[in-house]
Write a structure and sequence with these properties.
By secondary structure, the chain is of the alpha+beta class. The protein has 5 helices and 5 strands; from the N terminus they run E-E-H-E-E-E-H-H-H-H. It comes from Paenibacillus marchantiophytorum.
Length: about 160
């Protein structure tokens, strides 16, 4: 029988990880089941809803479509790695202040996606935010609070800079 387990070595939320995993395991399962990083949600499991979004070397990807071996040697950032300790990331603060969440199930994926957007474009337009979020589905908010959060975060970053 062929050994289908290998050691995944990567960085998750800034910490080096070396964990034995089956070759067929998805990154979302590694994060939730093995590393207990349950902020990454799993919903559709086919890459359509964005609830499982993580950053892979700074780019948003659906972790349900990412085989664990594909993350080898990379930096993976989950929702747990977005904030700096007790302080909320500006994206998280803006979502909170503008009502960009309701049930919260999609929130982690939205925040991860918007964090990547703001890191590349600190003052995105609504159209740019809509484009960035086209892979994230929210069934509760109607998106207006999310787009107000995009505007608020852009304004706060402009003031700081």
């Amino acid at each position: 029988m062929i050994n289908t387990t290998y050691v995944l070595e990567c960085s998750i939320n800034g910490k080096a990880v070396a964990i034995p995993v089956p070759a067929s395991k998805r990154m979302s399962d590694i994060l939730r089941d093995d590393l207990l990083l349950t902020g990454t949600k799993v919903s559709c499991e086919i890459g359509r809803c964005g609830a499982c979004m993580v950053l892979l070397d700074g780019k948003p990807v659906n972790s349900c479509l990412l085989m664990a071996y594909q993350a080898a040697g990379s930096e993976v950032t989950t929702i747990e790695g977005i904030s700096a300790g007790e302080d909320l990331h500006p994206v998280q603060q803006a979502m909170l202040e503008e009502g960009g969440l309701q049930c919260g199930y999609c929130t982690a994926g939205m925040v991860v996606t918007l964090t990547a957007l703001w890191e590349n474009n600190p003052a995105p337009t609504r159209a740019e935010a809509e484009q960035a979020l086209c892979g994230n589905i929210c069934r509760c908010t109607g998106y207006e609070g999310i787009f107000r959060a995009v505007e608020r975060c852009g304004l706060s970053i402009k003031r700081e800079g």
